[in-house]
Amino acid sequence: MTRPRSHRSTSAILAEILDQHGKHSTLGRKLRANRDRNWLLALTLNSFAKVATSIPLTDLESVIVAAYEAEGLGELMREHGRTYAAMPAQARRDLFPGRFALLDVATGYTTADLVRDLPGLDAAVRSMPNATDVDVAGVHEGRVALADVRRPRRAVVREHGGELLCAVQPAGPGIQADAATDPFSIKATGFHCSDETGVDFFGSDEPYWVFGSVGAGVAITTRSRVFGDVDSGDNLTFNDGEGWIWGQDGQPHPLPDGQIGSLVSLWEHDSGDPEEVRSATAAAFATAAAVLAVTGVAAWVGAVVAGVGSVVSWLIGFMDDDHIADQTFIFDRQTVIDQAGKVGSSFNVSRRFTDGDGDYTLTIAVTHLGPPAPPPATTTVPDVLEEDTGSALADVQAAGLVATTTGTNGSGSWVFRQSPLGGVTVPVGSSVTLLLRTGPRL
Questions:
Q1: Is the Cβ–Cβ distance between 65 and 117 less than 8 Å?
Q2: How many CA atoms within 13 Å lie on the side-chain side of 126?
Q3: CA 391: distance to chain centroid?
Q4: Closest CA to 126 of 73, 176, 168
Q5: What is the rounded distance in angstroms from the CA atom of residue 233 to the CA atom of residue 190?
Q6: Residue 162 host element (H or E)
Q7: C-alpha to C-alpha distance for 95 and 427, rounded to whole angstroms
Q8: Sign of the alpha-carbon torsion through 273, 311, 206, 220
Q9: pLDDT value at position 200?
Q10: For 355-410, what is each residue's pLDDT tens digit?
Q11: 98, exposed or middle or buried, with CB in 10 Å at 0-12, 13-18, 19+?
Q12: Would you state the pLDDT for residue 4?
């Protein structure tokens, strides 16, 4: 539902967030409901408040600032830093947890501080009302029934504008060795619109999805196309290149040794720039990867990726597209292989995205693909007699063979003789000798 682009100041938008009125009242509600995950947002904003006032940064603050500068968002973030610096103390206590509500430009927060705090942050995030922390080992051992693993109520999901699903377990002797070598894919396949945003009578939605993930120390963020004219009841599918969570480059890969964290967010295209949304998400995920790298505590992926969600919600709230909801996923190799251990097996995960206005359901397929086929041991020698030299060399290389040339190799040269002849089967990598001539062909 396209509306005119807003050019209001960040201070005016902040007032709506803090007072919970106007267009940004929903963002204000979500930020308060998700207070425990807003620690990374406070740390990021305070880091740029220090940059804006030329105050030296700690080691961790420098890492955060560098990630946004690399995405070309430095000036934007300095503006947000100045907005944060002017935020009243009570507003900070309303939005940020514990000691993060006390951060200011005179405060230094280091990598050592975060290493100390991460276990508590992770526990707090997993204990949020919208979080589902699955005791996977307990399910397999019979101590926990799957029926007891309850999803948050719809009212809770609506209040928070998202959920967190954590399904991790310690590596055990049952894990198959091929989990580290067979390719797996985790990819969104499609979505259903149960209820478009706003009143149906006034138009259709134009949703798009942003997929961010961090695994094996690498952070990747992609987005889907904008889906036009989406109405309540519609079912849409993603293209082959859209919706990848793992492998992050759009190709299946062996599962990493450790946790995969992903944030999937749903946006209604208003008058903003979807690529700007993706870029802001990418910067937040680059920060997550950097934070995990410098702290060396990858076990706390949940706290970090959940923190990314708040940063993204904040940043995009100041742009011109509307955040509907997001979902945070934390899982590991052991969990995935327990559910899809056999080559060719797969399972679907369906998650609901709603903030009380729009209501969408996303389907994600997790698939265990077979090992790549071994390269052929033999190949057929192509017949390149009387071909010009360039074409002959290309054909020989395309067949997995090595061309060795003798004779005259100049302008207008062509193959007078070849050995072996075309049609002969030889081992891949064998040499094919080409005798070249110039001038008219015989």
A1: no
A2: 17
A3: 43
A4: 168
A5: 13
A6: strand 162-168
A7: 67
A8: positive
A9: 55
A10: 877 899 999 999 988 776 778 899 999 999 999 999 999 999 999 999 999 988 88
A11: middle
A12: 33
d(CA 27, CA 186): 29
72-85 as b/e, with b when 16 or more CB fall inside 10 Å? ebbebbbebbbbbb
Phi, psi values for residue 267, rounded to 5°: -130, 145
> What sign does the dihedral 57-58-60-63 (CA atoms) show?
positive
Strands 414-419 and 431-437: antiparallel
Segment 267-314, tens digit of pLDDT: 888 777 888 888 888 888 888 888 888 877 666 788 888 888 889 888
> To which residue do tokens 């949940």 refer?
302
User: pLDDT under 50 in the chain at which residues?
Assistant: 1-6
Structure tokens at 28: 């204000």
Residue 429 burial by Cβ neighbours in a 10 Å radius (0-12, 13-18, 19+): exposed
Cα separation of 219 and 198, whole Å?
Answer: 34
* Tens-place pLDDT, residues 118-129: 889 988 998 899
DSSP state letters, 170-205: ---TT--GGGGTS-EEEEEEEEEEEE-SS-GGG--B
Query: Concatenated DSSP letters for 201-268?
Result: GG--B-EEEEEEEEETTEEEEEEPPPPPSB-TT-EEE--TTS-EEESTTSS-BPPPSSEEEEEEEEEE
Contact between residue 295 and residue 111 where contact means Cβ atoms under 8 Å apart: yes
Three-state DSSP state, 15: helix
Token code pair at residue 3: 């509306």
What DSSP state is assigned to residue 318?
A: T
At 147 the pLDDT is 56
Q: Is 190 exposed, middle or buried (0-12, 13-18, 19+ CB in 10 A)?
A: middle
Structural contact between residues 274 and 223, judged by C-beta atoms closer than 8 angstroms: yes
